[in-house]
Amino acid sequence: MGSFPETTAPFQRIHADFIGPLPETSRGNKHIATFVCSFSKFMIAEPSVDQTAETLCNIFTDRVISRFGTPKLLITDQGRNFMSKKVRRPARQNKLHPSDKHQLPSRSQWSS
Fold first, then answer.
1. What is the 8-class DSSP label of residue 49?
2. What span, in angstroms and rounded, lies between the C-alpha atoms of 98 and 92?
3. Residue from 54, 15, 53 nearest 34 by CA
4. Residue 49 sits in a domain of what CATH number?
5. Average pLDDT, the chain
6. How far apart (Å, rounded) are the C-alpha atoms in residues 94 and 72?
7. Is 89 inside a domain boundary?
8. Which of 7, 27, 57, 63 is most exposed by smallest CB count within 10 Å?
9. Is 95 a member of any domain?
10. Which residue intervals define the domain Integrase catalytic in the entry (predicted)?
């Protein structure tokens, strides 16, 4: 496991993952999408029905980008949902290469 650049402000680097499957709730949720700010340790945990790339993009846009702006770096475990075309397309448009250290595209490209 590599080291990451030091952060000097909130939401420069976000660590993201899914938890689950868990027992299904009355609303049909079986997973939790988690996002942690490496600077402040502020955590966002959002229940979700699944852990597809589309769900990931929606939650990330609604719960992270719309509140705090686009982070400079998104750290993931390279799970299938994080590495899917839906997530990789905006990265390619910004000439970014998928790895365990993803620099993120602009906010408008996440919702396309």
1. S
2. 8
3. 15
4. 3.30.420.10
5. 76
6. 12
7. no
8. 27
9. no
10. 6-112
Which class for 47: exposed (0-12), middle (13-18), buried (19 or more C-beta within 10 A)?
A: middle
Q: How far is CA 71 from the centre of its chain?
A: 10
Q: Beta strand 31-37 with 43-48: parallel, antiparallel or unpaired?
A: antiparallel
Report DSSP state, residue 5. P
More confident call, 56 vs 84:
56
The 10s digit of each residue's pLDDT in 24-66 is 999 999 999 999 999 999 999 999 999 888 888 888 888 988 8
Domain count, the chain: 1
φ/ψ (deg, to 5) at 47: -65, 150
Tell me whether residue 103 is in a domain.
no
* pLDDT at residue 20 greater than cutoff 80: yes
Residue 27 within any structural domain of the chain: yes
Beta bridge partners of 44: 35
Which pTM was predicted? 0.74
Predicted pLDDT of residue 96: 37
Cβ burial of 52 (10 Å; 0-12, 13-18, 19+) is middle
The whole domain housing 44 covers: 13-76
